[in-house]
Amino acid sequence: MAKSKLKPENNTVIQQEGENKPQEQVENEHTQQEEEEEEKNFEELGIDPRLIRALSKKSIEKPTPIQRAAIPLILEGKDVVARAKTGSGKTFAYLVPLLQKLFSDMPSKKNLAPTAFILVPTRELCQQVYSEVMSLIELCRVQLKVVQLTSSMSASDLKTALAGPPDILVSTPACVQKSLSSGILLAKAIQDSLSVLVLDEADLLLSYGYEDDLKAFTAHVPKRCQCLLMSATSSTDVDKLKKLVLHNPYILTLPEVGDVKDDVIPKNVQQFYISCSARDKLVHILALLKLELVQKKVLIYTNTIDMSYRLKLFFEQFGIKSAVLNAELPQNSRLHILEEFNAGLFDYLIANDDSQSTATGKNDKENHGAGKKSKKHPKRKLDGEFGVVRGIDFKNVHTVINYDMPRTATGYVHRIGRTGRAYNTGASVSLISSEEMEIFEEIKSILGENDGEDSKFIAPFPLLSKNAVESLRYRAEVIDEKS
Ligand SMILES: Nc1ncnc2c1ncn2[C@@H]1O[C@H](COP(=O)(O)OP(=O)(O)OP(=O)(O)O)[C@@H](O)[C@H]1O
């Protein structure tokens, strides 16, 4: 495969695997094509008017660059690998053409398995993608059945969900495998019915431990099935998956998506930091929130579950309403919290990211080591399919605060990617203690701090004065000691 090349904003590189044209020629051809394509709207991409109206009701009027590049290829039936940064609209880049195909070619009544499978790494993403498909279908007023499978479903629930069968299945690979191995889904039925397979957040699927499930499942994917692979980064895992399921795919690479180094923060996110001792982080975050120095809604990341509860209790004492989101909460509570936060019922959400889950390596599906175990509750059961960094589309988050610095630069990029999504603006504030300086320096150099581009520069947070912090110190310390 010819290597993808980094290009400036909006310049998607489209290349077919195995194509051996000199890179320069590909780029030149593409530049001309790009200029013509640049302004194409959904209508010009050949999108069904019902879908255009549905998107418009969601205030989506013009396609993002990845949508402009991917939709026509997917409509033509090509296998596609789409790599584009966080928040660039990859979900509709595959959902819109997928639905259009199903509208115009209604699945056969004889099908015994779903026509389209969308596989994602976490339950949260399952729910998010399921809601997006459902809302488009409802707005289009077409009759298509969509189900999501979750690993908490019993065999009889799975059987009920798959009866019919549905036209679109949204699931983690583990649930599909569970249905296959228990005979609820039949390999022969998949071979006869499956027309489109989507692997979303593909770069995460393997790190969540789904390799065996995916291998077992893809053995039944028929050759004629169109395969789409969506990812924010490129990695050896993405290459592995590509080899496993795709046939001579078109590779769409949006600018600067290569490896960790190129995995960019959207340009519309301003990044700041505050340097303080670990102990002073509480009073600093209190000042940020209490004095309203950061714009709402705010997503706060901590590295441990205990720290997130400590913060929540601390905020409560100051009348700041927040909620926590982590792997030990039951799935229903997590969905409920996400829905309430997205609906604007509260402005501050304290989350533990899934880097903790993946850092430990492989997922044992329901109870692997999602981060540091709490000293207070050592036996809590953690959900290995939990994930609230990658892919989750928190609505209208303006500010991301790193109360604790993430452990990796990739973790930083994906946390910050929860704001500034699509065409919105956002900001991030990282609280950095001296122990975290090393990772901070690594992040700065990886983002290219010195190459003169403002957007990549993490600046000192300008709005918080020493006096403001000191005015809150006494109360903060008293309250923290009490709780
Ligand atoms: N064409 C568009 N115009 C405006 N907003 C859009 C458009 N397409 C998608 N969006 C919105 O942009 C947000 C981000 O989209 P999406 O979740 O698909 O991004 P993503 O590329 O999958 O990000 P990640 O890699 O983090 O998963 C969503 O709220 C979505 O509704």
List its salient traits.
alpha/beta, seven-stranded parallel beta sheet, binds adenosine-5'-triphosphate
List the helices and strands and how they pair.
Elements: E1 13-16, H1 23-38, H2 49-57, H3 65-75, E2 80-83, H4 90-104, E3 116-119, H5 123-140, E4 146-148, H6 155-162, E5 168-171, H7 173-181, H8 187-193, E6 196-199, H9 202-205, H10 211-218, E7 226-231, H11 236-245, E8 250-253, E9 269-275, H12 281-290, E10 298-302, H13 305-317, E11 322-325, H14 331-342, E12 348-352, H15 355-359, E13 399-402, H16 409-416, E14 426-432, H17 437-446, E15 458-460, H18 466-482
Parallel strand pairs: 2-7, 2-8, 3-5, 3-6, 4-5, 6-7, 9-14, 9-15, 10-12, 10-13, 11-12, 13-14
Antiparallel strand pairs: 1-8
Helix pairs in contact: 2-5, 3-4, 7-10, 12-18
The chain binds adenosine-5'-triphosphate.
InterPro entries: DEAD/DEAH_box_helicase_dom, DEAD_box_RNA_helicase, Helicase_ATP-bd, Helicase_C-like, P-loop_NTPase, RNA_helicase_DEAD_Q_motif
Region (Disordered): 1-42, 357-379
Biased composition (Basic residues): 370-379
Question: What report would you give on this structure?
Answer:
Residues 1-42, 357-379 are annotated as: Disordered. Belongs to the DEAD box helicase family. DDX56/DBP9 subfamily. Keywords: ATP-binding, Helicase, Hydrolase, Nucleotide-binding, RNA-binding. This protein is of the alpha/beta class. It has 18 helices and 15 strands. An 8-stranded mixed beta sheet has the order 1-8-2-7-6-3-5-4, with helices on both faces. The protein has a 7-stranded parallel beta sheet with strand order 11-12-10-13-14-9-15, with helices on both faces.
